[in-house]
Design brief:
CATH superfamily of one domain: MetI-like
Radius of gyration: 25 Å
CATH class of one domain: Mainly Alpha
Order of helices and strands: HHHHHHHHHHHHHH
Shape: flat
CATH architecture of one domain: Orthogonal Bundle
Helix content: 55-70%
């Protein structure tokens, strides 16, 4: 047997230092630095004292780490007439977010399941109207919703804001669940029907256990959207029920006294910790849910 027959086969390994790889990784690195630079500035500024901040070097590490700004942002910063920090706003945001996420996902998952696997007369028209409602600008409906909430007696209360977020989250989530359930093998649904399972039996025993990725996608989207919302929070609540984002705005835009940039940065980071933590903990499932059919037509 010749040396050519016994030697290594296959294409020659490509060098990792090819021009294409250098361009791709350089671009990724530049973009990462571009998006991480503001976060870095926020963190280091929040750990500095005001005398050190006045020196003007925003990229310099703190000469002495201080968490005073974080404690003040959480417990004593003024958010208007109230100087109790972000504590109350955090609890308000939790009270708003948790039931809104649960209600919207439960209803949307059932809607998506019914539209994908139990078509009824007029289902396409219903789905079209539902999706059309998701693209109407929120600003056009602010005042009509004020009238509705006032009529129901929940305007200014957290209950009213929970209702608003639950309803506004349903159209896009229904689209996600419908597309996801449509992407699952039809044989599973047919086999369950042959075994005698009905609407709820198939949903809870077959579809729901296979829906963990899309449920994670829905949770991340809803938590991020509701927690970061400012418009609905300032319109449909009052000062004692303001969510965290509205209180953050009041801290940052306060016109009284000296601008405490370290407190502002600490308050901003505290406000964004919840959605960031949820995303980093469940990021792999988020990508898996998107890839598994969350955005398929």
């Amino acid at each position: 047997m010749s040396a050519e027959m016994t030697g290594p086969r296959g294409p020659k390994p490509k060098s990792p230092f090819r021009l294409a790889n250098i361009v791709v990784y350089s671009t990724i690195t530049i973009l990462a630095l571009y998006y991480l630079a503001p976060l870095y500035i926020m963190v280091v500024t929040s750990l500095k004292t005001m005398p050190e901040i006045r020196l003007g070097n925003v990229f310099a590490l703190p000469s002495e780490i201080s968490f005073d700004a974080w404690f003040k942002a959480w417990s004593t910063a003024c958010t208007g007439l109230n100087c109790e920090g972000l504590r109350s706003g955090f609890m308000n945001s939790v009270i708003i977010t948790v039931p809104s996420v649960i209600v919207s996902i439960v209803v949307a998952s059932i809607n998506g399941y019914a539209l994908a696997n139990w078509p009824f007369r007029g289902a396409n028209i219903f789905f079209t109207i539902l999706i059309f409602g998701a693209f109407i600008p929120y600003q056009l409906m602010l005042y009509p919703i004020v009238i509705i909430l006032r009529t129901l007696g929940v305007f200014g209360d957290l209950t009213g804001l929970i209702i608003v977020h639950s309803i506004f989250g349903m159209p896009i989530l229904t689209l996600l669940f419908r597309n996801y359930f449509s992407s699952l093998p039809a044989e599973l649904f047919k086999a369950a029907r042959i075994d005698g399972a009905g609407f709820w039996g198939i949903f809870f025993r077959v579809m729901l256990p296979m829906s963990i990725p899309i449920l994670v996608v829905a949770v991340i989207l809803q938590v991020t959207g509701i927690w970061n919302d400012f418009l609905f929070g300032i319109v449909y609540t009052r000062p004692e029920t303001y969510p965290m984002t509205v209180q953050l705005n009041n801290i940052v835009n306060s016109s009284f006294g000296e601008k405490e940039y370290n407190v502002n940065m600490a308050a901003t980071i505290l406000t964004g910790l919840v959605p960031l933590t949820i995303y980093f903990v469940s990021g792999k499932l988020f990508v898996r849910g998107i890839a598994a059919g969350a955005v398929k037509g």
